[in-house]
Amino acid sequence: MVTWYKGKSVSGLEAIIDENEHTAVKKMLLKGFTPKSVATYESKINQVTLEFIDQVEKRGDFDAGEWFVYYFADMMNDVAFSAKPGFMEHGTYVDGSLHITKVITKMWARVHAIPTVMSWLSWTMGYMVGLNWNIVRLGRECLNARLERPDAEKVDLLNLYIEAGRLRPDMISPERVFGMTLSTIIGGSDITAFTVTYGLSEIVKNQGVLDNIENEMKQASKAQELSYPPTLKELAKLPYLNAVIKESLRLAAPVQFNLDRVTPSDGLEMSGTYVPGGTTVGCVPAVINHDKSVFGSDVDVFRPEQWIEAPHESHNRMDRGLMTFGMGKHLCIGQHFAIAQMRKIMATLLMHFKVC
Questions:
Q1: What residues make up the domain containing 159?
Q2: Which residues contact 145 (CB under 8 A, 6 or more apart)?
Q3: Residue 254 — very low, low, confident or very high, per pLDDT cuts 50/70/90?
Q4: Nearest of 39, 125, 53 to residue 348 by alpha carbon
Q5: What is the reported pLDDT for 276?
Q6: Is 221's pLDDT higher than 60?
Q7: Which of 23, 123, 327, 343 could be disulfide-bonded to 235 (CB atoms 3.0-4.6 Å)?
């Protein structure tokens, strides 16, 4: 996707077409997206998570689909540039920002395969939205302030992007820093919220799944291996919770359009058919995640147990076949953030509230 803001390209990592440039830029950023690096944001994640719990207690009934978007949007803004737009505080979209995000993601799905149209629509939307989009305004203000007055003490992705820009200004301009920050927020809010909403709905609908996950957490708490709020290190050791998250990612893959690739110059044989070199091909992650040869005949059934019961070889094959975050060198750079946040909010909710 190519994004525009006030007539200038502000594309993020996902829009870099040149393979060498993509590899070089991603290599500079990867250190900020490892599981170890994600753990440095745990205090931010805890703060936003406990704010969510507090809001749920105050409000009683709430629309989970909407509120998880508020949660992840506030979270990713804080992670991106240490500032929150206050969606949870106000209990609404605040100037329609998240509605615009939904419009953008729908646009991606419908016209991503037509680059010319995609670029034109992105430019038009960027021009029309301008400073009226709160997320854009907040991001631009934070970027300008940080460029004028560097603050190395801030633990956020903006510092990572700015530092990468200083090292390679030819590849990472201030506009690209801005674009990468925005794509981090958009990719990490609405999309992740969808997966969590689906996962929790399946837990509530399946008594056996609910019993298993609650028993696992109770046993861990009794053994003093699970605190409140639970730490990311503790949650990584809960096999059933992580199986639930993997199964949610498999069945609720938010990317419903092709992940395009270009065949090598000498062509490629795919499923017995020769495809000439230079041909754009693609697969839909949601379809791959329903491959019966990988995930069994009951691919439409929410069954976390398969991630625990499967023999080692089958488990590895399922891991390789899970395409929700993509594959290879174009694997989603933010996957560890997404998984950490999903673990945190799902476990904290189930520990704090009684499901009945």
A1: 4-352
A2: none
A3: confident
A4: 53
A5: 96
A6: yes
A7: 343
Burial of 32 (C-beta count, 10 Å sphere; 0-12/13-18/19+): buried
- Name the phi and psi angles at 85, rounded to 5: -75, -10
Which of 247, 234, 345 is closest to 305 using CA atoms?
247
The single residue listed with the structure tokens 């060498």 is: 20
DSSP 3-state assignment of 64? helix
Q: Are 3 and 122 in contact (CB under 8 A)?
A: yes
Q: Is the pTM of this model over 0.85?
A: yes
Question: What pLDDT, on a 0 to 100 scale, did the predictor assign at position 16?
Answer: 75
User: What is the count of structural domains for the chain?
Assistant: 1
Strands 8-9 and 4-5: antiparallel
pLDDT-above-70 percentage for the chain? 84
pLDDT tens, 58-105? 988 889 988 999 999 999 999 998 988 888 998 887 666 666 666 666
Cis peptide before 229 (omega within 30 of 0): yes
Distance CA 157, CA 181 (A): 7
205: CATH: 1.10.630.10
Q: What are the angstrom distances between the C-alpha of 192 and each of 20, 44, 70, 249, 293? A: 29, 17, 11, 9, 27
Which DSSP symbol is given to 163?
A: H
Per DSSP, the three-state class of 298 is: coil
The residue count of the chain comes to 356
What's residue 112's pLDDT? 67
